[in-house]
């Protein structure tokens, strides 16, 4: 086999190329800056939901939309990343704490309610939205209170505490139907198979705002619980928490927060709470 000479210049170029690759300079390496909180790296991985219209939704063309997506994009920009540097990672509810612990994502914006139990495992920036458990019913429904659900069919997803809370505290004679996802509940509400769907009002508003459901549903406007949505960060990463809090405050002050609410929930006539103050957890 014939060997070719490697010139000194070529050898130098090879060393420089390998050094750049080792530093993650190609933007595709797993060693790209995703967890230091310093910003300005090759990319940033952010956990969101893929299946919640109005909050976190992966569109058929591969793009992402929703209030959580808008908040996450704004925060990432303030951390030094433009939209092309963001990699949105689907983060299901049951895996959120693990995703942060494994450094799969730098932060999570995914209808992530701040609770004492979760605060033992992760740190939170925010809150950035105060939601409430509510009911979604047909536009012509006479259901106005949770007690009206006695003898009615109430839908929520398997494993959710929302429907059980209604049954335990307000309507013990409600017929509870649990399914795999909220889309199934919405389909049941549309067909008349169920009389109401319950979960956070922000999630319900996101579905109601979809074009295919326009004018068909309404929120009952109840406040059956307080859900303080925060941005989850790996436990102990105080630097990133502080930077995200500063970004959230700026988003509110420059009215980008209001625009995101209107853009994502407006068609559902969602009567949202004012933007919460950082650290103000409503119990």
UniProtKB/TrEMBL annotation:
Residues 1-22 form the signal peptide. Pfam families: SBP_bac_3. PANTHER family: ABC TRANSPORTER GLUTAMINE-BINDING PROTEIN GLNH, AMINO ACID ABC TRANSPORTER PERMEASE. The keyword Transport applies. This is Glutamate ABC transporter substrate-binding protein. The lineage of its organism: Bacteria, Bacillati, Actinomycetota, Actinomycetes, Kitasatosporales. Residues 43-268 form the Solute-binding protein family 3/N-terminal domain. InterPro entries: Bact_solute-bind_prot3, SBP_3_CS, Solute-binding_3/MltF_N. Keywords: Signal, Transport. Belongs to the bacterial solute-binding protein 3 family. SUPFAM superfamilies: Periplasmic binding protein-like II.
């Amino acid at each position: 086999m014939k060997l070719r000479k490697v010139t000194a210049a070529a050898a130098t170029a090879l060393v420089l190329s390998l050094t750049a690759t080792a530093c993650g300079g190609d933007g595709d390496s797993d060693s790209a800056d995703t967890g230091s909180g310093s910003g300005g790296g090759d990319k940033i991985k952010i956990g969101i939901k893929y299946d919640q219209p109005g909050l976190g939704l992966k569109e058929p063309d591969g793009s992402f939309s929703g209030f959580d997506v808008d908040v996450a994009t704004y925060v990432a920009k303030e951390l030094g990343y433009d939209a092309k540097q963001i990699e949105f990672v689907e983060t299901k509810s049951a895996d959120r704490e693990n995703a942060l612990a494994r450094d799969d994502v730098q932060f999570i914006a995914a209808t992530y309610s701040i609770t004492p139990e979760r605060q033992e495992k992760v740190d939170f920036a925010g809150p950035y939205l105060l939601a409430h458990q509510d009911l979604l019913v047909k536009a012509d429904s006479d259901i106005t209170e949770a007690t009206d659900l006695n003898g009615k069919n109430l839908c929520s997803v398997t494993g959710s505490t929302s429907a059980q809370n209604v049954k335990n505290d307000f309507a013990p004679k409600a017929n509870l139907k649990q399914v795999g996802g909220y889309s199934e509940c919405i389909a049941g509400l549309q067909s008349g198979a169920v009389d109401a769907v319950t979960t956070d009002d922000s999630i319900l508003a996101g579905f109601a705002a979809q074009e295919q459901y326009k004018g068909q549903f309404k929120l009952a406007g109840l406040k059956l619980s307080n859900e303080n949505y925060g941005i989850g960060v790996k436990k102990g990463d105080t630097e990133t928490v502080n930077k995200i809090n500063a970004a959230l405050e700026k988003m509110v002050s420059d009215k980008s927060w209001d625009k995101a609410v209107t853009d994502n929930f407006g068609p559902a006539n969602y009567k949202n709470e004012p933007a919460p103050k950082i650290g103000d957890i409503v119990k």
